[in-house]
Task: structure prediction
Amino acid sequence: AIPLLADLAAPLPGRGALPPRAHLHSDAPRQLLDGTWQVRLHPSPRHAVDDGWQQPDARLDPADWSPVTVPGHLPLQGHGSPIYANVDYPFPVDPPFPPDDNPVADHRLELVAAPEVLAHPTVLRFEGVDGAATVWLNGVELGTLRGSRLTTELPCAGVLRPGTNVLAVRLAQWSAHSYLEDQDMWWMPGIFRSVTLLARPQGGVRDVFVHAGYDHRDGSGTLRVEVELEEGADAPATISVPALDLHGVAAGVEHRLPSVAPWTAETPVLYDAQVATATETVHLRIGFRTVTVEDATLLLNGTPLLFRGVNRHEHDPHRGRVVDLATARAELLLMKQHHVNAVRTSHYPPRAEFLDLADELGFYVILENDLETHGFERVGWRGNPSDDPQWLPAYHDRMRRTVERDKNHPSILLWSLGNEAGTGANLDAIAQWTRDRDPDRLVHYEGDWRSRHVDVYSRMYASVPEVEAIATEPPAETFTDPDEQHRRRLPFMLCEYAHAMGNGPGGLSEYQDLFHRYPRLAGGFIWEWVEHALAGGTTDDGRPVQLYGGDFGERVHDGSFVVDGVVHADKTPGPALADLARVFAPVSLDLAPDLSTLTVVNRYHSLDLSHLEAVWTSDGDGSGAGTPIPLPEVPAGGSAVVPLHLPPSALATTVTVLLRRRAAGDGCPAGHEVAWTQHVPARPVAALENDPVAPRRIGGGLVELGPAAFDERTGMPVRLGELALHDVAVSLWRAPTENDRGVASEEPDLPPVADRWAAARLDDLRTRLVEVGEDGPALVVRTRTGPPVLDAGVDVTWRWTSDGTALALDLTVEPYGSWPCDWGRVGVDLRLAEPTTRVSWTGWGPGPQYPDTGQAARYGSFVADRDDYAVRTVRPQEHGARRVDEATVELDTRALRVRGAGLPLTVRPWSRAVVAATRHDHELPAATETWISVDAAVSGVGTASCGPGVLPGYRLAPSPQRLHVLLQQVDRLR
Result:
């Protein structure tokens, strides 16, 4: 036996494993070993004891052992703590050595093998063990496990016996292989996927490799099924595909089929097949498709393919990377409902059955190897295993196990060598091996921009201008460097973009417009699908506690950077998912300004629009059922201009055109909306309904104007009807979003926007009253507001009028001085001393909208309770603005009515200062008051938490601004 310390420091593959093979659905007996195991902990390999604990007859102290659930992560079951790090290794970069501070967990399971399993040679299969493990059965070492998210099969024939067996696994959190597993996620050791005993009948089916191609020119297919048999076969395997009239044909022979239905994500046609021997039958589902590159364009079945993708980690807030199939299916159906057609398995292969779901439901998959060495970037990539020959066997082993397990899935179009592992000869070698092993798929790796050994040019977080520059590069022949020529001949994709963290991501539409415009662009994958918050119970008042980096005492961590998905950790949608669905919609609709025509562009890859119906509705018709619009045949990739015959009166109403499913499918009910567009007529500016009344002084330093009272010392209103108004002021700051806190990729030498705001003290404005006067019926207040230290600020004119019922404000903001930063917003804040219950509004909704987000917001009337309107996030930040024409902010017995024209309105129970200073949502104080902001302008949000900042057109430079708003106290709605 190799001493444990030396074993953990070896940069070699695990030992004792059988050659990797496909994950097959077999009728051979199997026995699942999931359930309750026993575990004991050691703080370090140097403290691990060898007291015969692996032996069946070991006498062990029960007090040392406790139950643990497999599959599961040890830190989520009370054994150690999770560690979140994105780039940094939480131990010294001293390859290949792990630190001595290295928790070791001894696992034991007593089992009785099923007789039907014992009747054959047996294999012990581990599908995922996070960390480095050694496995014994009945005291006999079977082998070691390396590659945490990869399957290992260990032969145990002759060791497994009738009666009680003892399976022992010693698991260390850190090893040499930890340097290869620096993915952006939680470090959590444990046996987190299933453990299974497999019977392997003599002469059974050991491995299968399906090659199924489709020729788009004539609709024919080719099928070749390679089969490897177990020892003892007395006859070759036979292949049957009943739907193709193939019955008992020989393996390894290519069959030309005159007509097959192609597999795509939109038409996921699968053919049931069987591979049989005298002792075992394996069931397969075959999909015919061909992926190629021509003229720098990605093609599927001869047609350009656009990825509308997301990056998906396996994550559950209670169980970590233990995700059951029902949850995975629900995730994929939620993606379908929101027009996601592709998944990059970041940054490791998922559980094997996930690919069955992708085949069945229809998703394009980039299947990523379990490999990342990102932490070496911190030391200038010195010692990076990717270019060190001693690590080549481990690289080859990981890639081989990735490809072999999942090679029969039509959903997988690209193999990815790994993620953020720098460059080097080892990556080049596994790229070549992958291409040789599976020439029917493409090879992907983003980390090498030379793109010498890959089939797509892939980047992360390239800005919109850079993506367009790549799309319009001159022809390959104009380059002199062979690598550049090769790169120019490749399609381009963004394997990560639009970091969906907190309030955001901004700028989705601009990317999608480029994807639609340029054939070279194959689309991209949003970072990312799900937030990785971990559940921490509930507060005393029942609020859920969600935890992120640093909440478990980690000394090296990346904070809330792990909370960055379009769906929350519990898989409920965040606001960004609705926006993504609108941007990803497979049909584009455009109404002519006079409503005479509707332009329809079919962006499906292979579907016409016969499965959809079109209707129009108007806010004036009252029924909401919709009037049908006859749709012509619009083939995939085609377009049509559809004449409309709407009544002339429709021009004065809000007209919505919907495309919706005729029948249920793809996890969507009949009537599910696929695309929509609106005509919103010009709305009149909100105005007082009666003649204005004059202001009058009522003593006590107060001026009365209609229902409002003003403090002459500040010029600000202090009462509106029976509502007391507090802290009325102009503001230029917002509580920073996660994107505001990030360094924009196009401005790497500048600090984050939030830091620039802090340096300019944008959150600490001081106001000087210049004058209070009257102009006819108007009360005119002039103030000068600016931050301390600087000689810049804003001159503000408040022009108040009233008709005795409502209060109108015409606000003018003029900047002066030399401002050192852009603004977060320009608007008016006020506080009410009681909490909101709900907000109802007419305007855009139901979700929030900032200049570069809110693509899903449509014009209508909406209602949201306090928390839904405020949009609470795991880490509190600016969020929740809606553009309103009219809103009613309801309190306990009264309400505040706000009217304007497309005014950004935020309503929340806390000041921006409190929001900005609070690390977790559950730490926000209980609602006792209401903070309201009505803005003239707001900044976009961008995606600088990882990637580009706010696009120039959405930034808010210091500039003159105007605001017109009507305020009125009304009775609370019932």
The domain at 205-292 is CATH 2.60.40.10 (Immunoglobulin-like). The CA atoms of residues 88 and 808 lie 55 Å apart.
